[in-house]
Design the sequence.
């Protein structure tokens, strides 16, 4: 405490948080665009407009920066997804389930998914990265499953319901992959409409 | 023709075909294990026990070698899949559909899928590779869809059936991705059992 007042300290903490956030966002964009091989702490620091020293104050290693980045954006996206359906707690009506399925699939087609995919594939070839990314993927997967169950109003005590929701999220992941090299939006829309219907029926 | 008899020519063609095949198989194994960055023509030639010159006689560029490799193995796997269900032409019985779904998913969990994934992700960052891989992916995707429709006995003239089959293949792709960093066999088996049932109901 000493001579430092609340007003002095807050802006410094704010600046630090803003710097960290800028680094994380730049890291995801960099990973999605250039892949793991083209993504270093220096490249990210430059993109974020932060000195290399400041970047290393926040993240000691490249692995730390990029796993933190994917985790940060996954959390942001989860929060946004919950925000889309504020009244869904306790169970979506049948008519809403198709919208929830479409929103879940959307999670897998943006820059976050591209960045996560680059990280997964890099981790599959790099032992240093692999355990950390596997742990991150498991955590993000569990959280996404929890949100999906809640928004779909799925009763997991019924046999098969848990696997129905898991398969839906696997499909969303596969649709994200299909969108990697070509714009797959037209086909995806039709598949999502039909599977939205199948999932709704299965969960009734 | 001249002095060269049929008997002289055939073994030479055989040897050339065998060399080509060894290169393609080594390329897929190399891509699955080391990723695009670690996969060069020299590395593959050494793994296949073929001289670099002989390798370049068959494939002029790295891009040519690896897209040919993924295509070759995809064709082998398609043939093997058809071979599993020789009596399915004209439509699988309901009881068989679950087995067909499981076999389709298996296509996405072996070294071929890992190799293809490495190629897709590399292509998303390399303009030289991207159009060729996108074209290959579209071709392999159409062929897999055709086989799936045939083995499942799916009537695509009925609304929604085409999208049901497409979504199933997207799910298979997503399950392959989930298997990249951790052994996901236990969870996958339960998801495949449940969705085998749901797809069977949807296609009746």
Sequence:
């Amino acid at each position: 405490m000493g001579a430092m007042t609340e007003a002095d300290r807050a802006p410094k903490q704010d600046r630090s948080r803003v710097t960290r956030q800028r680094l994380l966002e730049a890291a995801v964009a960099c990973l999605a665009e250039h892949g793991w091989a083209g993504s270093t702490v220096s490249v990210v620091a430059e993109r974020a407009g932060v000195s290399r020293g400041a970047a290393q104050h926040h993240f000691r290693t490249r692995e730390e920066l990029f796993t933190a980045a994917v985790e940060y954006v996954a959390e942001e996206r989860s929060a946004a997804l919950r925000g889309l359906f504020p009244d869904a707690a306790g169970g979506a009506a049948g008519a809403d389930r198709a919208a929830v399925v479409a929103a879940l699939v959307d999670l897998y087609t943006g820059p976050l998914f591209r960045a996560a995919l680059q990280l997964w594939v890099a981790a599959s070839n790099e032992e240093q990265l692999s355990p950390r990314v596997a742990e991150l993927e498991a955590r993000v997967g569990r959280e996404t499953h929890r949100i999906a169950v809640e928004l779909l109003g799925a009763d997991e005590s019924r046999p098969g319901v848990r696997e129905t929701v898991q398969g839906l999220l696997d499909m969303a992941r596969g649709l994200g992959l299909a969108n990697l090299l070509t714009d797959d939006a037209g086909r995806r829309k039709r598949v999502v409409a039909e599977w939205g219907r199948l999932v709704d029926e299965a969960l009734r």
Summary: Residues 62-203 of chain B form one domain. Residues 6-34 of chain B form the longest helix (29 residues).
